[in-house]
Structures are given as C-alpha cells and as structure tokens.
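Subject: DUF1918 domain-containing protein

B.,
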Amino acid sequence: MSFEKDDQVVLNDEHSEFDGETGTVTQTMESMFGDVTYTISFEDGQETGVPEDDLEAADDTDADDE
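Prediction pasted inline below.
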C-alpha cells in the first residue's frame, strides 16, 4: 500500500523513538531504484527515510479520539 502526503499512518519500527505512534506523511521520495520512502511528522518530531514496509494506515477512529 502506498501513502500520499497528509495521510495518517502508524510507524512500526522498534528502533525508532516513534514506534507505534501515529503521524502524518509530509513528504514522499522515490529513489532511482523505484523504492519509495517517507517523511513522517509526529507531535514531538519527525522521522525521515521511512520505508513503506514500516508503515500502516492509521485507523480513522484513532484520529477522531485525539
């Protein structure tokens, strides 16, 4: 699943301080090999170079609760 700017996503990366947090896609970048990485903005910072495999779409009900 690919994501677009302003999509709400959950980061699944145990090595990140934002693991399990919901953030907003602020930028997408495609490498010369066709791989897409994302910049995700969180309440307390951002994570860059995030591969698509580390993201999942945020549940809409979570966004309504915040």
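The radius of gyration is 11 Å.

T.
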